[in-house]
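Worked problem 6 (solution included).
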Amino acid sequence: MTDDANVTEREELPEERSFDYARTVALSDGVFAIALTLLVLNISFPALAPGHHGDIGRQLLDRRGEIGSYALSFAVIAFLWVRHHAFMRGLDLIDTRLTVLNLAYLGFVAFLPYPTRVLGVYGSEPAGVVLYASTNVIIASISALMRNHAKRAHLLSPLGTAVVARREHWAITPAVFLISIPVAFASPTAAKFCWLLLLVAGRR
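Solution. The predicted structure is:
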């Protein structure tokens, strides 16, 4: 059944395949853009009493957790978009299974602003760190499933095959977040410092 479906999809006209690809990319970029935009709404507006405008510095300092989680998630989502863009650019064909996986991936990307808010408000609590890390583990795991399926179903162009081959270190991302989960129960701060290891993955 799966092989027949792949054959049918490969027999589509080039115009149809181009249309499907364009729609998938447009939807993906739209979800990423909305997720990035929603992050700023997690920063609560300073509530200043009349005549106390001089307190704005203290109010902003009190929101350093929210501002920090915003910066972290903006960097994470931007990082995810760059990798997703590189993967999509290397596709020669998009089949039904990849479409479903991509939708699941986008669903968790769209969800990321919520654990970002929880992290900003309850960053000193293990639950806040675990929720954020778990969401990123799921996102990275679905991304790995997408790449593996694309390779096995021969959906990649020669360029895409080379890109995926160079990106085997993508396993670092879920590994770092996964390791930080048990660490969070001992020290939420130490768990967040574990995430700095992602800078290593970002440079490769």
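Discussion: Residues 133 and 177 are 5 Å apart (CA to CA).
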